């Protein structure tokens, strides 16, 4: 049987037509911070590049761009972790399975800070190019469970990629939520061949890869755009709770010329009354408690 297309997995729903969602204790809006921890294999082309290859001919090994990413794991991660700890923020880390064994010191720090471990496939390869998606998913679960003691409940595809079958494989493996779909400001249940999986709100524009690498914006733009986005979502949350995610990567937002803007953004958002910071699993539990 052919896999379902996205529109078959969930009916259209206008946010204006839904019953209001509420938070306890004066909460108004949910902030979902995410950090991606990946493995870039030196034997393959890099997932992103900051330095174009000479004469625009890709070269392997791509040592310059590999080292750019590696800086994030050696230095940038620690800047971001210190900032999040100082702010008292416990976020969600989207983890390549291979990162669990290749960067054990980073994994240890995430455990110490109490971050939620979310699965980000086994390595940074688009799901369309994975030979066996079920095996990739199984290895990812196994690697993460081995270091944190529990199976991850949520999934982000590498590069946010999915085939039409991916959601069915994820639900079959026990995943309860995904973050790949940037199509709503509230959680949305999706049909699969193995029961429902919930899509948690994500967005592609408050995302350091998009702002800094694809759109090539100056460093402060991440903060100013996110503040404008936040102001709108915060106002709308007075009527029904909205979720705002923002994504950082150690090799981008952990850079010395960007970290101050991440700090200033978080200070601004956390200064507003009723803003509740949640991990993906807590958002899932809150949503299920409100919708049955």
* Tally of separate helices: 10
Give the strand tally: 9
- Portion in beta strands: 5-15%
Highest-level CATH class? Alpha Beta
**Through-space gap between termini:** 30 Å
CATH architectural type? Alpha-Beta Barrel
> Helical amount among residues, as a percent range?
25-40%
User: Strand count, sense and closure of the main sheet?
Assistant: 5 strands, parallel
Poorly predicted ranges: none
SSE pattern? HEHEHHEHEHEEEHHEHEH
The CATH homologous superfamily is called Glycoside hydrolase/deacetylase
Q: If you had to describe this structure to a student in words, what would you say it looks like?
A:
The protein is α/β, with parallel strands linked by helices and 292 residues long. It has a single domain, classed as Glycoside hydrolase/deacetylase (TIM Barrel, Alpha-Beta Barrel). Helices cover 39% and strands 14% of the residues. It has ten helices and nine strands. Strands 1, 2, 3, 8 and 9 form a five-stranded parallel sheet that branches. A four-stranded mixed sheet has the order 4-5-7-6. α2 packs parallel to α4 (104-113). It is globular, with a radius of gyration of 19 Å.
